[in-house]
Amino acid sequence: MKDQYGFIHEKPIPMESLDKKALKEKQAKERKWYKMVKDWEKDKESSREDAGPTSFPDELKTRIWQGCPNSLRGRVWPLMLRIKEIKHSNEREFGAHIYERMKDKARRNSQDLRQIDLDVHRTYRNHEMFQWKYGVM
């Protein structure tokens, strides 16, 4: 059985039980976040490539402090870190597939990968992303 964070458990874990009011509040929060992320993505597509989150920084800061819903974290983090823009910038500067080339080079040459593999396995052995070597990459 897997929990909401990707950790694998042998026994079923109790589901989060919310009363109707708390459930409505959670759904309203997710709708607000969803609209903000959708607008942000649309705004970033129509603006400069190197533009950061300029359309609503105060709203974003406030919502970040209140907490990002788990259902949207996978979309919010790449936007906040400007992954797409940085990747395109690196590809223009260093050529296509730079990320894959850097990963391959690290796998071949890194003296620390063995220790990282040991540490990750000891720390997160019950997480779905770390069940296989390089599962996260």
Determine the strand fraction and express it as a percent band.
under 5%
Largest sheet: none
User: Shape, please?
Assistant: flat
Q: What value does the Rg take, in angstroms?
A: 19 Å
How many DSSP-defined strands? 0
Low-confidence stretches: 50-54
Write down the secondary-structure element order. HHHHHH
Q: How many H/I helical runs?
A: 6
Short description:
With about 140 residues, the chain is mainly α.
Structure explained in plain terms:
The structure is a single chain. The chain contains 6 helices and no strands. It is 60% helix and 0% strand. It has helices spanning 20-46, 57-66, 73-81, 83-94, 98-109, 113-124. Residues 50-54 have low confidence and may be disordered. It has 137 residues and is mostly helical. The protein is flat.
Features:
137 residues, 0% strand, mainly alpha
Which helices and strands, and how do they pair?
Elements: H1 20-46, H2 57-66, H3 73-81, H4 83-94, H5 98-109, H6 113-124
